[in-house]
Amino acid sequence: MLDHTDMHILEELSKNSRIKMKELGEKVHLTGQAAASRVAKLEDSGVIEGYTIKVNDVKMGYSVHALINIYTKDTHHQPYLSFVKKQEKYVINNYKISGDGCYLLECKFSSNESLDQFLIELNKHVNYKLSIVVNKQ
């Protein structure tokens, strides 16, 4: 079970995973060594699964962010899943969901033209409903 200090450590690491352990310790009222020990325990227990970077998609050339509700045409989803696996250039996440649709596909595209081409190919496997992200709050 995580205590208040562990939760505070996770909060600070989520803001800046490159923080120095001494600085982290100061923020959570521990020594740098104690903070490092806590982080190691969180990693060993699987609470912290890894570290990542945040990339600016627009500066990387991806100006279109799309959320696509997927409606499979039958109970055999493998053709869709195979298609998605080959589209890693565009696909951010593919969530299997309950509710409205079978999957929620989160994608990024460099242009409306590349989105349109993706949707043409996608429609060979499934039906969909498209939403475009206008602004990330």
UniProtKB/TrEMBL annotation:
InterPro entries from the UniProt entry: AsnC-type_HTH_dom, Dimeric_a/b-barrel, Tscrpt_reg_AsnC-like, Tscrpt_reg_AsnC/Lrp_C, WH-like_DNA-bd_sf, WH_DNA-bd_sf
Matches recorded under Pfam families: AsnC_trans_reg (PF01037), HTH_24 (PF13412)
Molecular functions (GO terms): sequence-specific DNA binding
Cellular component terms (Gene Ontology): cytosol
PROSITE patterns, per database record: HTH_ASNC_2
Gene Ontology biological-process annotations: response to amino acid
SUPFAM superfamilies for this protein: Dimeric alpha+beta barrel (SSF54909), Winged helix' DNA-binding domain (SSF46785)
The protein's name: Transcriptional regulator
Species in which this protein is naturally found: Priestia filamentosa
